[in-house]
Design brief:
Length: 611
């Protein structure tokens, strides 16, 4: 590392080379993991201790260590610094190829949320601080379990590491939570309120399974999806076996001890808010389907990886104007839908994309036109009645490895690796969209640029400076300063060293309430739902108008209140559409009926007359 002009170590960068000699460097150092041939001589699994979730790194580290011990893989566990991060070091006998290392790293990242696996995907520059080396905060890497001899002797068998990869891929959490099984044995516990089958399984996992922090969050996500209240989840945190993470904490030495009451309550409330955000985000998503064509999934993943690289390589294209920021959000929403459904061609309405991106429908429509003009997406089919427009990400910016073949072979990556990659990418897209999708980051609040900084800070263990934020977002220093200043004013970021990190507490609701804009996105979602209801009602009316008189059903007036909701799979029966004096459809009156809830049987006792 290189000291700044003030003599301090601010940037977490290692630009200078230091030849091996009897004298150690005067600043912290790291060492490359692979040799000049791209063979990994050392593997380092870096579990970052985030400010709001330091114990997740410890739980993830213990879970991977247990799996490695099961497969007789010698390894060394270090506490990377006083921040609480963990390193697991492995020295493969004879080295491990870059392909095998990438497969192992991706499978591990699909399991463990705190794992930073980028160094294991970069055979050229991937590096890490070795055991016992100094940290820039003044502490050192400390050995917790294992011996240095396991690295010096390089006695980890590649076959055993391959078996670990297979085990991780077979048991990896799926891209859709409803397909994820528990991480350990379950008992006969039954929640006091109804949950889905996958939610009940996670709630019944004995002592949180092999990874209590992950199991605990899955319980919260299942409860948020089922519509539980805060009081319900507080009761479950005291009684459900799967929520062990909110009763006890990892000591960092392979054991657990009870939490203090205030600490447990704060942690539960913080993660409950995150689970509710994700559950709300997933409400409007299309249903999951079983993927049959792995070649198509491989193509989608390749295109998405190339797209994310392009977004990272050219930040100025996506951050210099408000329109560019909206285009990036819409492009990420389309990419998410493609990965979620496993289909190259996806149908999405403008309102759905607007809600996913946290912007208005007119802004989303303008962004779609710009993305189409610039060649990032293409329209496969235009909107037709109740059918939304269909899009496809343009694959031109992704160059397959077999481009030079006249007839490329359709050999997708192995299924385990494909689904692990899909899980990792979907997790990244989910956090990018949900963290910046909040009332406080709307145009009336701090703006989308501030939302982007807030979202990007999730995966950064080190503080970000003003210059770093400007480079990351592709904006000038003044814009980055303004965005960080707004975040600081609302206490969404806090000062740490020479930069900024996310606040431990999620204060976005409090900031939006103070600005008077809390509920903006919820109100927008209700408004779009009412617009869809009116549109569906008019389409049903049009079908009735164009049918023969004999085929027209008897329809009551809208004021004749239904006494139950028709939940069958057949076509919905609509009341007569309101008409004006000249016999034309009165869309304004129809909207008033929908807004007042006249078509909703659940609100029949609370409604008054429509003016």
């Amino acid at each position: 590392m290189v000291r700044e002009a003030d003599g301090q170590l601010h940037a977490n960068e290692y630009p200078h080379l230091h030849r091996l000699n009897p004298h150690t460097p005067t600043t912290p150092w790291c060492m490359r993991l692979a040799d000049e041939h791209g063979t990994f001589r050392l593997l380092c699994f870096d579990f970052d201790a985030k400010a709001d979730e330091p114990e997740t790194a410890q739980d993830d580290c213990d879970a991977l260590s247990t799996l490695l011990a099961t497969h007789n893989v010698p390894h060394l566990i270090c506490e990377s610094s006083t921040s609480g991060g963990r390193h697991i070091w492995i020295a493969p006998r004879g080295g491990l190829s870059a392909i095998a290392t990438a497969a192992l790293a991706t499978a591990a990242r699909a399991h463990y949320r705190s794992l930073d696996h980028g160094m294991l995907l970069n055979a050229r520059e991937g590096a890490a601080r070795p055991p016992l080396s100094p940290h820039r905060n003044g502490s050192h890497s400390t050995v917790l379990r294992g011996t240095i001899d396991s690295l010096l002797d390089a006695n980890a068998e590649p076959a055993a590491l391959a078996a670990v990869t297979v085990a991780l891929e077979n048991a990896a959490p799926r891209a859709h939570t409803e397909q994820s099984g528990p991480s350990g044995p379950t008992n006969n516990h039954r929640p006091h309120r109804k949950l889905t089958s996958w939610g009940e399984a996670h709630m019944a996992t004995v002592r949180g399974g092999s990874n209590p922090s992950w199991t605990g969050f899955m319980c919260l996500l299942a409860a948020a999806t089922a519509g539980w209240s805060t009081r319900d989840i507080e009761h479950a945190a005291r009684t459900a076996p799967g929520m062990e993470h909110y009763r006890t904490k990892n000591t960092g030495r392979g054991a657990r001890r009870p939490r203090a009451a205030h600490e447990a309550a704060e942690r539960l409330n913080r993660q409950w808010a995150k689970a509710q955000d994700i559950a709300t985000f997933r409400q409007g998503l299309p249903p999951t389907t079983r993927i049959q064509d792995l070649s198509q999934l491989d193509s989608i993943i390749t295109t998405t990886e190339a797209l994310l690289q392009r977004l990272h390589a050219s930040p100025g294209r996506w951050g210099r104007t408000e329109a560019a920021v909206s285009q990036r959000s819409v492009l990420l929403a389309l990419t998410y839908l493609s990965m979620h459904t496993g289909k190259e061609i996806i149908g999405a309405s403008i309102r759905d994309l607007a809600l996913l991106a946290g912007i208005g429908r007119t802004t989303a429509n303008t962004a779609l036109k710009a993305l189409t003009t610039d060649g990032w997406i293409e329209t496969i089919r235009t909107a037709d009645g109740p059918n939304a427009r269909e899009f496809r990400l343009t694959p031109d910016f992704s160059t397959p490895s077999d481009k030079d073949r006249s007839q490329p072979f359709k050999n997708p990556r192995p299924p385990g690796q494909l689904f692990s990659n899909r899980t990792v990418i979907l997790s990244k897209l989910t956090h990018l969209l949900t963290d910046g999708r909040h009332d406080v980051f709307t145009r009336a609040g701090h703006g989308h640029t501030a939302g982007r900084i807030y979202a990007e800070l999730r995966d950064r263990p080190d503080p970000i400076t003003v210059d770093g934020a400007a480079e990351l977002l592709g904006v000038d220093r003044r814009t980055a300063t303004t965005a960080l200043s707004r975040l600081r004013h609302s206490r969404l970021v806090i000062k740490r060293g020479g930069g900024w990190i996310r606040s431990v507490r999620d204060l976005r609701d409090a900031a939006a309430r103070k600005l008077g804009i809390l509920g903006t996105l919820a109100a927008r979602a209700r408004r779009y739902s009412e617009e869809r209801e009116v549109w569906a009602w008019w389409l049903a009316e049009y079908d009735t108008m164009t049918s023969s008189p004999r085929e027209r059903p008897k329809r009551p007036h809208v004021s004749a209140r239904p006494i139950f909701r028709d939940t069958g799979s057949g076509e919905r029966n609509w009341p007569r559409y309101p008409r004006s004096a000249d016999g034309r459809g009165n869309h304004r009156e129809a909207r008033e009926y929908v807004n007042a809830g006249y078509l909703n049987p659940d609100s029949r006792w609370q409604l008054g007359d429509v003016a």
